[in-house]
Write a structure and sequence with these properties.
Chains A, B: Keywords: DNA-binding. The structure is a homodimer. By secondary structure, chain A is mostly helical. The first copy, chain A, is built from nine helices and two strands, in the order ααββααααααα. Chain A has a two-stranded antiparallel ribbon. Chain A is elongated and about 65 Å long. The mean pLDDT of chain A is 86. Chains A and B meet through helix 3, helix 5, helix 6, helix 7 and helix 8 of A and helix 3, helix 5, helix 6, helix 7 and helix 8 of B.
């Protein structure tokens, strides 16, 4: 198909398609003549994945490129793909404090988790705690144990979907990890707002502007 | 204090401070002479809040402005503040399908939630489902009931922190809602990655690149 057809089928503009090619996220099409390039179904599949990561998952193009490169490499061990998908978090602009890191690590220990020091989630969670402290709102950290219990329920469901796809080959397993990790954050954030409204109505009789 | 001192104390550059003032997120300082402006502790407190929302919470400056305006208004009902803080989600670029909206609403109903149709989380969750379907990965939607259970645990903890601050006045309650909602997503995403690593190690013996 031509680039205009690819744009219509994927919902991604021709300008963005050209940009993704120039940035190395999408392989170039096949030159079939002067100013003519043909794209195939592989391009469409790939564009849908890119669009999911960038538009719905909120990844930067640079982060999406790293994640896709990891998922593309057939020699990449499963644990590495998970590690790279896990890095799809806003990076703290300054390193979190050792106090907050220790506090999050302690919550993980009480939950019985085995987590290495370099886990990107540990730094991200500690960065949030630092912000609570900087705002003088240490009380907000009281949610930690409940959030950890919830995170465990989510992670079990995540690994269940990975387990069910182990026979489908490494490419599918990698896609599961990448898509499930990145878009799963958005799914969880959405459900959390629904539950907040419901819980607010239950306690205070009001939860929404309408 | 002068702008350079405010920048040093807040960790926000003088250029960004001037931008936040021009965008209406931060009140201007007091002119004390030619090319001299004085800032107070209120500015420092406000900057820490802006920095939390933008740098750690990942909000755009426009979204942070809306959220802060809602939290600032003493006449704003609590339910409205929650509603506006809830809108701090990536907006779907196209409306979600009615099928996905119905599917998420059904999960909410089974969970016993009362949620109005315009809840921004409903649209965000449905947009993720649409992406799973577009990628041919309907199997990923199997996580929905587990995610909903986890979201309920999180929302209960969220409303607990709000309840404990009801006596501290509307400004504190609004700050709790805004900070807790926006940064809570990042905290939960971090803990989820820790739990994923731990669960991956438990099942597959590998979970991290190190």
């Amino acid at each position: 198909m031509r680039i205009a057809e690819l744009a219509a089928a994927s919902g991604v503009s021709a300008t963005s398609i050209k940009w993704y090619v120039s940035e190395g996220l999408l392989p170039p099409g096949e030159r079939t003549g002067y100013n003519q390039t043909e794209y195939g179904n592989d391009h469409l599949t790939r564009l849908r994945l890119i669009r999911s990561l960038v538009e719905v998952g909120g990844l930067s193009v640079a982060a999406a490129k790293d994640v896709l490169a990891a998922a593309d490499d057939p020699a990449h061990p499963f644990g590495d793909t998970l590690g790279i998908a896990q890095a799809s978090l806003p990076r703290p602009t300054s390193p979190p404090s050792t106090e907050s890191l220790a506090r999050v690590a302690d919550v993980a220990r009480r939950q019985g988790w085995v987590v290495h020091d370099g886990n990107p989630g540990l730094a991200a969670a500690a960065a949030v705690l630092d912000r609570y402290l900087a705002l003088g709102r240490d009380d907000l950290a009281a949610v930690l144990p409940a959030y950890a219990r919830a995170a465990e329920v989510v992670a079990e469901a995540d690994l269940d979907t990975v387990s069910k796809k182990l026979d489908a080959g490494p490419a599918t397993a990698a896609q599961t990890v990448v898509v499930g990790t990145v878009l799963g954050d958005a799914l969880l954030a959405g459900l959390r707002r629904m539950a907040q409204e419901s819980e607010s109505v239950r306690r205070f009789g009001t939860g929404s502007p309408s």
